[in-house]
Amino acid sequence: MCLAIPAKIESIDETRTAQVSVLGVTRVVALDLVPHAAVGSYVLVHAGYAIEVVDETIAQETLDLIAEFPELAQGV
User: Fold this and answer.
1) What is the rounded average pLDDT of the residues 55-59?
2) Percentage of residues in the chain with pLDDT exceeding 90?
3) Stretch 24-35: mean pLDDT, rounded?
4) Do the Cβ atoms of 19 and 27 come closer than 8 Å?
5) Which of 1, 6, 26, 49 has the fewest CB atoms nearer than 10 Å to its CB?
6) 48: alpha, beta or left, given left = phi > 0 and alpha = psi -120 to 50?
7) Can you list the domains of the chain with their CATH numbers?
8) DSSP assignment string, 56-68
């Protein structure tokens, strides 16, 4: 099963690579598929790529649900 996780964009460099935060963990992701994403946006991340910009409320609801199941949050 594949899973995309919501993450908040913290910074974007000149190559359109973003540093994102997921439940306190930072990762680097490519923004090639979401050229309109900006710092502060929430994106769904899968396999190192942001695949969709999502509403902050929806992103937070999903993160809250994931946090209820610590075993799901391991390795985020």
Assistant:
1) 95
2) 71
3) 95
4) yes
5) 1
6) left
7) 5-73 (2.30.30.140)
8) HHHHHHHHHHHHT
